[in-house]
């Protein structure tokens, strides 16, 4: 560590990181005991690498932030590694009846189907929202939606794809100062929810 990095520390102040206190790219780090998980010495650390964000954040949003229920429907926007964890959590752990994967890459949609998604929708389709809603019983819209792309415009798309009393969350980070337009009357009339999520709330 550099002197500049350590200059703000003192016996009264603990050292910390400003990136979720995880020092993702550091070889060594100081971490609070609540953030440490002991693994057997023979464990291949390459197997642990995706757990911290990929699984924790992806699956955590489904299991904690949204609390997806068995038999419900979910749209997952962006099925890279983190979004793919959401697909698996919804389909295999929570038993969602409908899991719609949305992405710009057909290969990712195909993999999502292998891992439990019931439907795949291209993210640049003109009728994307209609396709998502059509995947649900009676075309009423999904019960849950979650975005892993970090594209602000997806917030409105998620909310439009929700059914009555639906719940949406954004996990992908667009950066500070970004905003999204929503239809306030649609939110109010249909009781839709938009909730924050930090690392899957896990």
UniProtKB/TrEMBL annotation:
<comment type="similarity">
    <text>Belongs to the zinc-containing alcohol dehydrogenase family.</text>
</comment>
<dbReference type="Pfam" id="PF00107">
    <property type="entry name" value="ADH_zinc_N"/>
</dbReference>
<keyword id="KW-0479">Metal-binding</keyword>
<dbReference type="GO" id="GO:0016491">
    <property type="term" value="F:oxidoreductase activity"/>
</dbReference>
<dbReference type="InterPro" id="IPR036291">
    <property type="entry name" value="NAD(P)-bd_dom_sf"/>
</dbReference>
<keyword id="KW-0862">Zinc</keyword>
<dbReference type="InterPro" id="IPR013149">
    <property type="entry name" value="ADH-like_C"/>
</dbReference>
<feature type="domain" description="Alcohol dehydrogenase-like C-terminal">
    <location>
        <begin position="82"/>
        <end position="200"/>
    </location>
</feature>
<keyword id="KW-0560">Oxidoreductase</keyword>
<dbReference type="GO" id="GO:0046872">
    <property type="term" value="F:metal ion binding"/>
</dbReference>
<protein>
    <recommendedName>
        <fullName>Alcohol dehydrogenase-like C-terminal domain-containing protein</fullName>
    </recommendedName>
</protein>
